[in-house]
Specification:
Blueprint (H helix, E strand, L loop, with lengths): L4 E2 L9 H7 L9 H18 L5 E5 L2 H10 L7 E6 L2 H12 L3 E6 L8 H10 L3 E7 L1 E2 L4 E2 L2 H8 L6 E5 L11 H4 L3 E5 L10 E6 L1 H9 L9 H8 L10 H17 L1 H21 L3 E2 L9 E5 L6 H12 L1 E2 L1 E2 L8 E5 L6 H17 L8 H11 L1
Parallel strand pairs: 1-13, 3-4, 3-5, 5-8, 8-9
Antiparallel strand pairs: 2-10, 6-7, 9-10, 11-12, 12-15, 14-15
The structure holds pyridoxal-5'-phosphate.
Length: 379
């Protein structure tokens, strides 16, 4: 008998409470009962996005909301700044390109966070820039970008927005959208919200809604204005993934019951324990200076093939971890700790890592990682 465990940074493991909700018969999305659920979801999303404004929910993967955050905010001739420190930063650039938006890429070395001064330099010299696109966590490298500092800079420009991909940030660490002055935050269901893939979210500041008013790029399904109008009536514009909405209500209830501060603290602890465990095994962190509490990207010494290790995780233990993407392929593995994870989950995955490293001939003191994790978790 072998169990299966998801330690990938999306999709993530789901709690039984949420799985059970999805087993209920599908209801019709124009019934009063569904409107009640929708209304509760609206409040729960405001709580976790930390905004007074509505949070739009779309039936799509996270990239749908990213696309909407380009097509609804910008107009022909607008320029953007795109922070490209990994695969998801590159995606902002690809979306801009698809909509004919010219952008200044800021290419950040993979594993490093962006330096906000770089953004300021461009903002000072090109007054046609209307938006800065970044990630809260760049999931392909495990880096956390300094979005608070970037927001401070962007705030000085009345005609520029900061747009944050919080797909691996919302529900992981504190992103007080209104307090920090973030203009747009997008997210997805299959990460810290402990849901299957299939829902995306977009929250907009009052400043961003003004951009929506004047935007002339083509849009249809991801039409923020239309969706807002319907959201306020507890409706979605098109047939929503009803079962995921029902599950989302459960997830938001669970998060509110634990309390967002406790949720952030839990992620911080799990992240810290994983990082210390990995270091105790003589391995390096890929995002050494600026690791996110969403996931830990681990670098391997010569002789340990990351792709092989990832495959062995599954073969030996039924554990799915993520490998490196593109230029990081074979060089790293990424262990997630966002969403439905607790202390012993991390002890287990570190224990599996030790057994596999031993099998692959890496020299280290067996048990050192587990001990470091346990000590961190008992502090
Ligand atoms: C930071 C980040 N942005 C965007 C995405 C893309 O989301 P999706 O695959 O749900 O479209 C992901 C998914 O892993 C992500 O981690």
């Amino acid at each position: 008998m072998e169990k299966k465990y998801l330690f990938s940074p999306g999709p993530t493991m789901l709690p039984p409470e949420i799985l059970l909700r999805m087993a209920e018969p599908v209801m019709h999305h124009r019934e009063p009962e569904f409107e009640k659920i929708f209304s509760e979801i609206r409040e729960g999303l405001k709580y976790i996005f930390q905004t007074k404004n509505e949070v739009l929910t779309f039936t799509s993967s996270g990239t749908g909301a990213m696309e909407g955050a380009v097509s609804n905010l910008l107009s022909n001739g607008d320029r953007a700044i795109v922070i490209r420190g990994g695969k998801f930063g590159e995606r902002w650039g690809e979306i801009c390109k698809a909509y004919g938006i010219e952008f200044h890429p800021i290419d950040v070395e993979w594993g490093k966070a962006v330096k906000p001064e770089k953004i300021h330099e461009i903002l000072r010299s090109d007054r046609s820039v209307r938006a800065v696109y970044t990630q809260a966590t760049e999931t392909s490298t495990g880096v956390r970008h300094p979005i608070r500092e970037i927001a401070e800079l962007v705030k000085q420009y009345e005609d520029v927005l900061i747009v944050v991909d919080g797909i691996t940030g919302i529900g992981v660490f504190d992103i007080p959208m209104d307090t920090w002055g973030l203009d747009v935050v997008v997210s997805g269901s299959q990460k810290a919200l402990m849901l299957p893939p299939g829902l995306s979210f977009a929250a907009l500041s009052d400043k961003a809604w003004k951009f929506v008013e004047r935007s002339n790029l083509p849009k249809y399904y991801f039409d923020f204005k239309k969706e807002l109008k319907n959201t306020k009536k507890n409706q979605s514009s098109y047939t929503p993934a009803v079962s995921l909405f029902v599950a989302l209500r459960e997830s938001l209830r669970m998060i509110q019951k634990e309390g967002k501060e406790a949720v952030f603290r839990r992620h911080q602890r799990l992240g810290e324990a994983t990082r210390r465990a990995v270091s105790a095994l003589g391995l390096e962190l890929y995002a050494e200076d600026c690791p996110s509490d969403a996931l830990t990207a681990v670098k391997f010494p010569q002789g340990v093939d990351g792709e092989r290790l990832k495959a062995l995780f599954f073969e030996r233990f039924g554990i799915t971890v993520a490998g490196g993407q593109e230029r990081a392929k074979g060089k790293i593995i990424r262990i997630a700790h966002l969403g439905y994870y607790d202390r012993l989950d991390m002890v287990m995955v570190i224990s599996a890592l030790e057994m596999l490293l031993r099998e692959m001939g890496h020299k280290f003191e067996m048990g050192a990682g587990v001990r470091a994790a346990e000590e961190a978790l008992m502090e």
